[in-house]
Amino acid sequence: MKKDKVLVFNDDDKTCELVSVKDVSAEAVATENGMYHLEDLDQRIDIRNGNVIYLAKVDMPAKIEAEKLIMLRRSVALKRMLNFNVKDGIDWGKLFPYIIIIALIIFK
Q1: What does pTM read for this prediction?
Q2: Measured distance CA(8)–CA(19) in Å, rounded
Q3: Which terminus has fewer CB within 10 Å in the chain: N or C?
């Protein structure tokens, strides 16, 4: 498995941080610290390992927004996981072919 990384340069306090990538989509790169728009990142290839290293230059407001985006993504995922539609009954139309197959096996 590839171990892509994001190298985050913080312009405010002149520091950098190397963070592992959790997920890459068409629009963003997600890490455990935040989510960064793909168009704002510079991509480089690590020729030794064959991994992708994303370079991000952020200031404090951009870093805070990246953290908020990852928290928003987690909360939306939790809402969708816990959103059960209990009013819907069993869809017999989808189960009907399986019932026929089981009946054919039993009464063969």
Answers
A1: 0.59
A2: 8
A3: N
